[in-house]
């Protein structure tokens, strides 16, 4: 009993000391080389040694070293539980302040005017696309839509920092990556309308884009399933000695899925060149992050798996660009996974099937829409560089709008995929049971033509 | 070809000798091989798969040292730890990783240590692997994926080392489900599964890993998928099964013969897409059908066969289709002999069906 009390009081005594000795990850203004050494084994040893007692017994114990799988570690006479938190929250890397001013002596990846302007143009294009497709859904022209509003910087700046050879395993709120790589507004429209030019042959709901040409694996609705797949793809790239990595996107909610944990652990163990990009936008449909996890967000999970991780301001295009650029260098040339947690906000509803004012304050949405808009912040920086102006802005917005309305008209008029496509691609060739079912169905359609949509050609 | 199966639950070993009809001529394994057991046949197939395709990978829990059933013995030494490796203990991770690897144009040969533990991977297999080609309009596919997993009773496996979950996967368009009955079949069907451009779940009868011994040609050969095999011709009743259950059915055929009943025995081999025509042709000849599997009878794949054959052969059937399967209980340890669709249960059902 006495021993327990003693241990408990000693633990209590040492707790604050132990917490203060925990390493701080990603100190603001830390030099790049230091920031990139986030979790070397030596660090863990250093923190384990922290809080040493001065009693002779403790000295004796602390001199004893246990050689255990994973490396040597110290014994301790102190019963000390690691805290459930890191004490102070992990800081968030940013390059631009709220007004688009570059923060002094900040490290960031320089980018050319050409790239910088294309980034901006694509962010605007994505915004206009979201607005118009959202309206098209409201008018009943497409069945469903899901905007990326508020996350334009994440979409475009991350894509800009990658090579087109990097393979993307998206969730569903990252169409900007595909846009950056050259997918046209017509191609987006074709998918949303599920017409015969849709590469997915009208089989999936709108926004489930995919393109082998642009190394963008087709979106699937289940959450986080793409993460372990990205690890497998990354391993393939590594085995083929490609200068490329796999990049997978997901939200804060996705980090609760088993696949998230499976993927991080596999990636660390397999030393796979994969970037895990978490868009922590605060909301998984109606569930806030406070009901999703108790850790300090997502970034802290990386360290537990032995993965270098960074938290970045997701509404700062330059910070996202810089972090992804560096992450890619480390992933590809050091063959290791990297975790990026981008802090942002889902300004739109979850999807067209959702009304987010039912579970969150309109003021909160408005705050992020007006004061923390990633596009305006980036634009101020561009303008200060003399790379953008009002005329360019209005010309761009009107031309994107025009192009998109045209694309929608074309997509809407286009025929649906033929009935036969219902049966193809289940297997590489159509097996006999499906041939039989196809014949039977065609017979039924002939018999009851009124039961079936007329725009699907037989 | 001859195979010897030694079964028995520690109460002495019963032996059954049997002969096999030939497979399709073109794919027929040629030349006499050495007598080897089923795990060695799997091992040979994996050696060949890795040897013939530099983009083939073998991985799963404990496969590095040869696997808990020894199926991957020697592979890591021969092909290196980057192509044959252990994974963390996480089935959904194994399946997801395998899908990603296959989607990049590799042959991903993943092992799930026991079929009882495949359920954490169910979402990856059902929602991801099976739909990968279809949902992308063939922009992408993970056809190079093969998931190997030992299934079925082993005499002492209890709830979690005995199950036969094949029917769950037979409800999933886009997958192929393959189950071999013998060493020679295992090698040829596994090589076909690995090289098939569709994701395949390959169930291996763990009871036969060591007990089934058969001459297996050493060369590279494949047996066709989605083709059932009539392994014994008869005229009174058709028996359909797969995997380890085939040897039990075979013993029932022998005993039925002694009382003057001639059984035709079909090994389905591929459960989806399955070879309805072969079963239909046989039932049209015999007029009777019995299906037998270890999995619980309700919702088992036997129900699908029974229903399909009733549709196709209604006027030819002279008795209701009999199903001799596992009970609708979890797989029980000490009650295993009661749970199992044993020879005498089958024999009784044969007699009842024939005299209906």
Automatic annotation (TrEMBL), chain A:
Cofactor requirements of the protein: thiamine diphosphate
Tree of life domain: Eukaryota
Molecular-function GO terms, alphabetical: branched-chain 2-oxo acid dehydrogenase activity; metal ion binding
Domain Dehydrogenase E1 component: 121-417
Name the UniProt record assigns to this protein: 3-methyl-2-oxobutanoate dehydrogenase (2-methylpropanoyl-transferring)
Major localisation: mitochondrion
InterPro entries documented for this protein: Alpha-ketoacid_DH_E1_comp (IPR050771), DH_E1 (IPR001017), THDP-binding (IPR029061)
Pfam families from the UniProt entry: E1_dh
GO cellular component terms, A-Z: mitochondrial matrix
GO BP annotation list: branched-chain amino acid catabolic process
Catalyses which reaction(s): N(6)-[(R)-lipoyl]-L-lysyl-[protein] + 3-methyl-2-oxobutanoate + H(+) = N(6)-[(R)-S(8)-2-methylpropanoyldihydrolipoyl]-L-lysyl-[protein] + CO2
First-level EC class: oxidoreductase
Subcellular compartments: Mitochondrion matrix
Record's keyword annotation contains Transcription regulation: no
EC number in record: 1.2.4.4
Family designation: Belongs to the BCKDHA family.
Subunit details: Heterotetramer of alpha and beta chains.
SUPFAM superfamilies from the UniProt entry: Thiamin diphosphate-binding fold (THDP-binding) (SSF52518)
Keywords: Metal-binding, Mitochondrion, Oxidoreductase, Potassium, Transit peptide
Residues covered by region (Disordered): 29-51
UniProtKB/TrEMBL annotation, chain B:
Subcellular location as annotated: Mitochondrion matrix
Main location: mitochondrion
GO biological process, one term: branched-chain amino acid catabolic process
Pfam family, any one: Transket_pyr
Cofactor: thiamine diphosphate
Broadest EC class assigned to this enzyme: oxidoreductase
EC number(s) reported in the record: 1.2.4.4
InterPro entries referenced in this protein's UniProt entry, alphabetically: THDP-binding, Transketo_C/PFOR_II, Transketolase-like_Pyr-bd, Transketolase_C
Entry coiled-coil feature ranges: none
Catalysis performed (reactions): N(6)-[(R)-lipoyl]-L-lysyl-[protein] + 3-methyl-2-oxobutanoate + H(+) = N(6)-[(R)-S(8)-2-methylpropanoyldihydrolipoyl]-L-lysyl-[protein] + CO2
Domain Transketolase-like pyrimidine-binding: 36-211
Record carries keyword Mitochondrion: yes
A GO molecular-function descriptor: branched-chain 2-oxo acid dehydrogenase activity
Alphabetical UniProt keywords: Mitochondrion, Oxidoreductase, Transit peptide
Gene Ontology cellular-component annotations: mitochondrial matrix
Gene3D superfamilies referenced in this protein's UniProt entry, alphabetically: 3.40.50.920, 3.40.50.970
Record CDD domains: TPP_PYR_E1-PDHc-beta_like (cd07036)
Oligomer status and interactors: Heterotetramer of alpha and beta chains.
Name of this protein: 3-methyl-2-oxobutanoate dehydrogenase (2-methylpropanoyl-transferring)
Organism name: Platanthera zijinensis
Organism classification: Eukaryota, Viridiplantae, Streptophyta, Embryophyta, Tracheophyta
